[in-house]
Amino acid sequence: MSDDQAEVPLHGGRITHDVVRVGDTVRRPPTPSSEFVRLLLRHFASRGFEGAPVSLGTDGQGRDVFSFVDGDVPADLAFHGDETLCRAARLIRRFHDLGAELVATPAAAAAGIETVCHNDLSPCNFVFRAGMPVALIDFDAAAPGSRAWDLGYAAWLWLDLGASGISAMEQKRRLALLVGAYGCSAPGAILTAVLARQAVLAARSKGLGNDAMARWAAGCLEWTRQNQRALGGI
Question: Domain range for residue 40?
Answer without folding.
Answer: 3-67
